[in-house]
Amino acid sequence: MAGILVVAEQVDGVLRDISAELIGAANTIKQDIGGPLEVVVVGSSPQDLAGSLNLEGVDRIYCVSAAGDHFDPLAYEQVVFEIGTRAKPSLILVGHTSSGMAYGAAVAARLGSGFASDVFKLSMDGEEFVATRSAYGNKVEMELGFSGKGVVVLTLRGATFVPPENPGNAEIETVEVDLSALEGMSTHVEYQEAPPSDIDITKADFILSVGRGIQDKDNLPRFSDLADRLGATFGCSRPIVDAGWLPKPHQVGQSGKVASNCNLYLALGISGAVQHLFGMKHVDTIIAVNTDPDAPIFNVATYGTTVDLFELTDALERHFN
Amino acid sequence: MDWDNIAPFEAASFDDYTAPDKTGLRILVTIKHAAQLGDEYEFTADGLDIAGEYLEHDLNEWDDAALEQALLLVEALGGGEVVAVSVGPEEADKSLRKALAKGADRAIRIWDERLRLADPVTIARAVAGVAAKEQPDLVLTGTQSSDHAHGSTGTALARILGLPHGAVIAAVEWDGKAAMKITRELEGGTRHVFEMPAPAVLAIQTGTNVPRYATMRMIKQAKKKPLEVLDGAVLIDGGAGYKVRRMYTPVQEKAEMLEGSADEVAARIADLIRDRKGN
Ligand SMILES: Cc1cc2nc3c(=O)[nH]c(=O)nc-3n(C[C@H](O)[C@H](O)[C@H](O)COP(=O)(O)OP(=O)(O)OC[C@H]3O[C@@H](n4cnc5c(N)ncnc54)[C@H](O)[C@@H]3O)c2cc1C
Ligand SMILES: Nc1ncnc2c1ncn2[C@@H]1O[C@H](COP(=O)(O)O)[C@@H](O)[C@H]1O
Question: I need a surface site. Which of A19, B168, B226, B272 has the fewest CB within 10 A?
Answer without folding.
Answer: B226
